[in-house]
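In the previous chapter we treated chains in isolation. Here, by contrast, the input contains two separate entities that must be folded as one system, with a combined length of 386 residues.
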Amino acid sequence: MATQTRTVKLTVTRYRPGQDRDPITQSYDVPYNEDWVVLDALQYIKDQEDGTLSFRWSCHMGICGSCGMMINGTPRLTCAAFLREYYPGEIRVEPLANFPIIRDLVVDIDDFMHKLEEIKPYIIRPDVDSAPVGKGNEFRQAPEQIDDYRQFGMCINCMLCYAACPVYGMEPRFLGPAAIALAHRYNMDSRDQGRDQRMGYVGSSEGIWECTFVGECTVVCPKHVDPAAAIQRTKLATTNDFFRSILMPWGNR
Amino acid sequence: MHGESSVRRPAGYPWHMPAGWWLKNGDYIRYMIREVTAVFAALWVVAFLVQLAGNGRNPAAWAATFRSPGWLVFSIIALAFVLYHAWTAFTATGTLVHLRMGKQVVPSGQLNGVMFVGWAVATIVIGAILLMG
C-alpha cells in the first residue's frame, strides 16, 4: 500500500503548434511504482491526467526504437529507463535533442529517414538481382565473417546517437552515426557488392569526415552498437583506398 | 520522392544548439580537452619552425630564445598536453582498427598496447640519437 501513495514528479516538455510560441514545461505527479519505466509514467499521464500529451512508442520492450527521449538530459529509450533509477528525484523528459519538435515529445525524423534511405541499407548484388536465390546459389558465410558486421546490424534506428552527437546538433547535413554504422554493416558483409554505391555519400565531407570522434553515440546506444568505431574504420578504409589508387592505379580496391 | 502524401506538414520547432553544450556531461568536457590539447601541439610546432627559420640569420639569438624561461615553460606545458593527446590517440587505436588474424579478431587492448610499445621504442631511439649526436 505504501508504494501506491508515493509519487514521482515528471517535468515534461510541451509544445503545441498554434498554441505555444516556444516549448514550455509542465509537471505531473505520477504514482511511483518500482516496476514502472518512464514510458509507463507518460502513459499514466496521458490516460489519467492529460490526454493531449503526445509521444511516440510502440513495442514497450526495447525493440522498435520509437520511444527515445531525453531523460534528465541524456538520450534514452523511455521503455528501458526505470523510475527507480531516478526516484526520489524529479524526472525531466524532453524530446530528442538535435531534432525539430513537431509536438510535445514527438520530433521530426524525416531527415534521418532520408539519410537512411540514401545509404542503401540492404545487400546489393547486381550479379544476382534478376536470378532467384535458391539451392546452389545461396551465399554462405563463416561465423567469423558474420562477426565482422554483426554488432553494427543490431541498430534499431532509435536515433539516440543523433541526439547525443554535437556534430549533428551543429551541422544537420552530417549523415550521422546510425546511418554510417548501417552503411558499414553492409560494406563489411561478405555477400554485399554495393560498397561503391554507398561510399559516394558516406565518404563525402557530409559523411564520415564531418565526424570529430566525440564518441557519445557509442555511449548512449541501447543496443551496444559502436557507431564511433564504424565511422573511424570507414575513414581508415577510405584513406587506404585513396593511397592505393595513387600508388597502384592499375589495381582493384 | 520520399513522401507518400503531397501535403507537407509545417516545419517543426527548430533545434538550436546551446553554446554551452560541451558542459553538459563529462564525456563532452573530456572531448573538448582532447581537442584543445592538439592546439597546443600545433602552436609549439609553429613556434619551433619560426625560430628554426631564424637560425641562419642570427644563431645567437635563436639559441638564447630556446634557453629563455618563457620558451621552457611553454614547452613543458605543451609537452604535457601532447602526452595527453597522444594517450587519447593511442587508446583509440583498438576502436579504429579491426584486425583479424585468421579466425580471431585481435583484441583492442592488444592493438593499443602495440601503439604504446612503438611509442616507447621511438622515444628511446630518438633520445639515443640526440644524446649521441
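The mean pLDDT of chain A is 93. Strands of chain A lie at 7-14, 24-31, 68-71, 74-77, 91-94, 101-103, 106-107. Compare these points with the single-chain example from earlier in the chapter.
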